[in-house]
Amino acid sequence: MQTTYIETQQISFQDFKNQILEDYKLGRISREMSYLGRREVLTGKAKFGIFGDGKELPQLAMAKVFKNGDFRSGYYRDQTFALAVDALTVESFFAQLYADTSVEREPASAGRQMNGHFATRSLNEDGSWKDLTAQKNISSDISPTAGQMPRLLGLAQASKIYKSVKFEGSEKFSKEGNEIAFGTIGDASTAEGHFWETLNAACALQVPMVVSIWDDGYGISVPTKNQRAKADIAEMLSGFQRKEGEAQGCEIIQVKAWDYAALLDAYARAEQFARMESVPVVVHVIEVTQPQGHSTSGSHERYKNEERLAWESQFDGLVKFKEWILNYSIEIDGKEEVLATAEELESIDEEAKKTVKAGQKLAWENYQKTITDLIGSVLPLVENLKGQNSEIENYINQFNKLVSKAKKDVFHLVRRSLLATRGTNSAERNQLMQKYNEIFEVEKDNYSSHLYSQSQWKAENVQEIKPIYSDASEDVDGRVVVRNNFDKIFEKYPETLVFGEDAGNIGDVNQGLEGMQEKYGDVRVADTGIREATILGQGIGMAMRGLRPIAEIQYLDYILYCLQGMSDDLATVQYRTKGGQKSPVIIRTRGHRLEGVWHSGSPMAGILNLSKGILVLVPRNLTKAAGFYNTMLQSDDPAVIVECLNGYRLKEKQPDNLGEFTVPVGKIEVTKEGADVTLVTYGSTWRIVMEAAEELGKLGISAEVIDVQSLIPFDLTHEIAESVKKTNRLVVIDEDVEGGTSAFILQQILEKQKAFRFLDSDPLTISANDHRPAYASDGDYFSKPSTDDMVEKIYAMFNETNPQKYPAIF
């Protein structure tokens, strides 16, 4: 049976005293980390600093109700909390400040994130899940204001889902759904839409979520009164307060940041509501101070008046905590007992300074040793080249004059030396070259690994299983293929669930989920409100807790509402933790060519360029889409799958092995062989390209048609280059705007695959106009490439090379 903090607080005075003094000590250590961290930045040993000073007491209180299995989704002020739940040490705090690339010394991000971005490691080294119920969990922080909120919703909702959903291994992710998701946010960031959308959804879904608002009265320099409709966010949220007997709304608790006893009570009550009743709670922590200002970028004296600064000094949480400790006394068995004397607290203060200084010193020495070892392995090899070029000695002297040396300085020296000795074949240069290749691979891993999964479950490793057809295979609407495939998926994978606008009761707007809610229940097949950012957030959070969510964004155009979360959060999860966390959510959407400005856009270039780290799969029909779902549910990569909106009513032959067949990622398909020109396309445009290829055939031009299928990853075996080698001409046809996906595809083929070597004509791209498509079939015809456009432009390539055989059309 899960217990709460309130139910466990019957302790002796001595234990109470020890607990108080431990809290005071930890608060002082955290404060000294902030002070010393700022000095390290200002003296040039670190690039930037942002710290949690002033927020120590509420975070100590929050940590007391944070149990194994719980999750936090917060922002870069929560160092005291991270210390209190053993997710941070003094050494790892400073290792992150210095951007140490060692996972052992800086386990949150291995130097990839600036300081204050906390995370625990959810994965073993091989990418498999740890037992998340046996540890306290922090989902990796991101900097964009309020960007942590949508993910928080999913982390909380996972607990509710685990109350009824069980599968093999689910015990590693939840104990009967009793976990809480804790969120933290600065008061100014509550002006962001993500905050309101998340809180609104949490109040509707009734998930166990506790959101702490650290209210220091400013958003950098802008006071609260200029941030919101009301300065008091608790007053502003009063309409969200739940009413007795209603399963809607949240609890709102307001408490002062410097009142230790009240903070303990506030978080104990918040935990009780969330853990026992699955009710979202907002803890509005007011009168927060910020002793060092917002960050090392500036001073808060510029925008706070003397009265405010004096008040902050007086009501500093640690100052008030010290006063409270010294004023506390109780009579036990006729004897007055106190918590500590002034001398004892001063001793704790001094010990905290020593602890922090020792931790900082060790972190700096470890960080520097990495660089000195690198220099030691490289510099002698560079010196061996001095006789081969007179400039080498100058390079070495310039390097030695540097007051502080970073890895980039070492690499700059090596690369300049190799450049200076180009064309020289000597043992000394070969040794340096070999060393350069060796250290470059190390740093490539340090700075560029884990954008995508590197585990055995990465999507590229999923084996292809072709669809099986027989005489009994029926011709059905495309939507029936994907619907029946989902039926098999939900039966096969109990951890899989889908949610989105109209996804449940009516089986999605195109009936691709028809009957699934009735069969599998409204927990696994659920309707949501119109709130794309938090639909994505639900998916991210659930996937971080071992579920396999399919987050449905009704139309491709609407994905713009959640593109920030895709770009800043989902796409970077594995990268920013160097393989420490993953979130294999599948984003289901539909789009491509149809009708109108808002339902037939193709923001593929934005998705491609802003979401590196997410697979982008563009099936040409619903059978291919079904295969991609089957593939991705065996993978631990996140993906967006774009179904063809105009394909649901087109007939397809339904495979006999639904739920089993897979479509490999990064593999193209030649859908028509040809000899004269290679036509590359994807999605709904493929049908029109096939029509154009038939028309070109009548004109004496044999076109080979290639369906890309997968934009990320793209043609892993370079089959397109082989086609171009045969045809010597290349046309990329795309419904996106000029310079969009067609430019990406062209770059991949010409630069990565080196297909330019085989071209006898300039490569051609045929794309849509730069404006959004106008309405109806006529709008599509005049806005995006038509069969006529394709035939005429491709024909013109042949007219240019052989005008007699191919006379001009116009």
TrEMBL record:
Pfam families: E1_dh (PF00676), Transket_pyr (PF02779), Transketolase_C (PF02780). Residues 476-650 form the Transketolase-like pyrimidine-binding domain. E1 component of the 2-oxoglutarate dehydrogenase (OGDH) complex which catalyzes the decarboxylation of 2-oxoglutarate, the first step in the conversion of 2-oxoglutarate to succinyl-CoA and CO(2). Gene3D superfamilies: 3.40.50.920, 3.40.50.970. Keywords: Oxidoreductase, Thiamine pyrophosphate. This is Transketolase. It comes from Chryseobacterium tagetis. InterPro entries: DH_E1, THDP-binding, Transketo_C/PFOR_II, Transketolase-like_Pyr-bd, Transketolase_C. Its cofactor is thiamine diphosphate. SMART domains: Transket_pyr (SM00861). The keyword Oxidoreductase applies.
